[in-house]
Amino acid sequence: MFCRFKSCFEAFIILSLLSVNLACGFGLSRTSNPGSNVAVTLNTSSATIAPGGTQQFTATVTGTSNTAVQWEVNGTSGGNAQVGTIDSSGLYTAPNVTSTLTVTVAAVSVADTSKSASAMVTVSQTATGGVTITISPTAATLTSGARQQFTATVTGSTNTAVEWQVNQVTGGSAQTGTVSTDGLYTAPTVTATTTIAVTAISSADTTQSASATVTVNPSGNPGSLSAINHIIFLAEENRSFDTYFGKMNEYRVAQGLSADVDGLPDNCSSTNSDWTVPCDAVNKSPDANGYPTTPIYAFHLKTMCIENTSPDWIVSHWDFNAEDPASDTPLMDGFVISAASAALSSGTNDTKGIRAMGFYTGGDLAYMYWLATQFATSDRWFSPASARTQVNRYYMVGATSGGQAYPSGVPIKQQTIFDELTAAGISWKIYSEDGTTSATAFTKFKANGNIVPYNQFITDAQNGTLPQVAYLEKPDADEHPGVGVNLQYGVAEVQNLVNAVMYGPSWKDSVMIVTFDEGGGLYDHVPPPTNVPSPDGIKPLDICTSSSDPRCQLASVTHSSPPYDPDGDFTRTGFRVPLMVISPWTKPHYVSHTTTDYTSWIKLVEERFGLPNLNKRDAWAADMSEYFDFTDVPWATPPQNPPPINYGQCYDSLP
Predict the structure, then answer these.
(1) Average per-residue pLDDT in the chain?
(2) Is residue 52 domain-resident?
(3) What's the pTM?
């Protein structure tokens, strides 16, 4: 931009003066400009604010093209700690004073330093609209010795410090429980139910405080669920029980344990990777016309990567009975057909569907087999719905999908387990990679600031600040099948999470449940039950069973028809999925044979904290108490020296 000498020279002089005077901490020297038409006005002539509070001033300069101003407090450019500070935009921040203070804020024209405008500011602890403070949560129910993290939020002041009290005693006491300077409350040991107040008091304005009510119950019978203070739930992605733990008996026998697991037949050898070698686990691959003709037998996978398969409503019903998918007669014969279909639709290589019959061994998944064997597993633990990930994850948080067989976006009009926890004052967090959660599909779900970054879980576990219920929304490394996706990276992430609990301060009173959201369209030989309660009586809203089915319009949101969906209801679960129940109370080497789905984790939470059932499905589910020995505490000292992870080979072919 072209600049005439005189105006540039004047600007240079003014800026030079400004820089020198600012460096010395003084205001502009007042130099009048005879004949100047410059005028300065402020948006307000007075203000009353609280200590540490802020007030935005705006200066308007007329009579010159140079509208810049310098801000002063009591004649000092930018102010200072004693009178408050003001930045170049006119934002004044009051000092933290204990008595009323009056100061003058001025805007001085840079074009004509004899022109200014000022406002009177009163800093007072009685200022309205000043400091406010809130506390979260506002209520909590704990057992003796349990912990609760409280958070105080201060607004209206830059001084956000608070003083924590328990029953009006700073820091609390042995009788009422203690609270740290960052709000971590530890309940006392009580013999009868006790109600306690935890209070945060603003340091900026000690008249402002917020309190939470804490109900502390006795620890109760050590032989009951009341000993549990932290329930942690994690679901990995898309692996069936037979694919993952089908060779558990072989592993157990090698450890000197009994062969108690209903896994793959013994004659499906762990050393055989040829799917043409006959054994008692078999499906048939389709020919060019789609007819199942070629037997594919269970075989040992050598690659840690397989192409994706599909667990959709339609193919899950094919898996159950390929000839009559709407039937409740289980044949368990359609896994290879559906895997072939998935490859054809996605353009991947295994168009024969062979990968659906592959399995891993204890040598491949040494860490997970070790966890399941040291602690406990189940061979009758099913996913809740014969459908894909999203639908099952709705069940995972609310024990229903609200009629969705596909993720069609129908609002689910009921509470989640987290809403019940909030109402009961039970602390909870959802740890999420991207801030999202399946719970938001439920119209009554309120996050209340409890969705936190995924990596905070390890920090909380290591610091002993886990909530009473911790839900790990699926991680990025989740063992989901896919080209070039090594499932062992997911295993490694599970190990990091488990280690943070198992070798951390919360181990003594925690239960960690690790499972999978659904079977992923991979082979399993055990038929899912077909007579479980429908959660809420809502039948599938988004399937398309024929060209005249009125549900086809909603179904078209997620998939095209034909092929048409088989009819059905939510009275059939999905297929078996792996389970590991990890805690100091877990019965060593235990195998459950109780038929249930993983809404059992919700039932466990309900039983532990005295909450009502969400619906008929979680009311039906087992409460998982059979896994625990609260008297002897078998793993008070957790097992040491877990086996290393075998990352193996990862290639896009078979075996």
Answers:
(1) 90
(2) yes
(3) 0.72
